[in-house]
Amino acid sequence: MSISHFTAPIWLAFLIVIAAIAGLYAIVQRLRKKRMLRFSNMEVLEKVAPKRRNPLRHAPVALMLIGLLCFTIAAAGPTALQKVPRNRATVMLAVDVSLSMEATDVTPSRIGVAKEAAKKFVDGLTPGINVGLVTFAGTASVQVSPTTNREAVKAAIDNMKLAERTATGEGIFASLQAIDTLASVLGGASSPPPAQIVMMSDGKQTVPDATDVDNPRHEFVAARLAKSKGIPISTISFGTPWGTVDIPDSDGQGAQQVPVPVDDVALHKVADLSGGTFFTASSLGELTKAYDKLDEQIGYELKWGDASRPWMILAGLLFACGMATSLIVRQRIP
Fold this sequence. Notes:
The chain is α/β, with parallel strands linked by helices.
């Protein structure tokens, strides 16, 4: 219950009336005590008056006054921040499908766990949100354009295929293009629907070279472009520092074990540059928690809404308690 913002604060003037009633009650009690002391026969008074006054005798009036206070607050129209489901937003899920996702440092594999958690994330989004899917390895591809059809997105997640290299920047550019396309199709509104990119990756960018930060297709350049468009990128660094994959030899006669540690630093910077949030996850549980937090952030927004109902209910309960207490203590309703 909130009393910090009111839509009709003029009703708070009734607090003066409540204060006056409380003051009048105190005066009446004092005058009643003085009249009792004037009783001529003190011996009779001692016999008829109770030895000790019931401390609950003022409770009915106190409860009703507090009830009036709550009613006044309700009439003044209190407002509170309320969590409201979004019905107009776009989310692009960008998933790294490079060969490093075959690593089994996360059971059964990074890609297996990523698919399961991503589908839960899609299911957790509020119905009015458009969600799309982009996969990226050496290149990026829009698998599903933003849509409210959750089954189509989950089917595409199940069918993700792995490929060589990692072009993180391309994944961001493809996501931004999909968001722009939807905004142009929707049209009509004074501003495009709010959008966000959720990117999950496990490795360092290899296309272009991660050290070539001035390359126009670099992930940092893409992150800055997202920032300029007002589209934050929340990144999830998924995997462990000791993950490895087996890369077949060129002659096909054997395989070489190659370490594929996660790259927290780059993904953290992408989130920072775009105004998004960075998460780390090294298990299904941690990845699910990261997606749950994003579901909460993306799927709901805080808006000021009417908060008078709880105050009205409390006022009614206090009045009822006041009358009940009066019948019990005084055998009458004040």
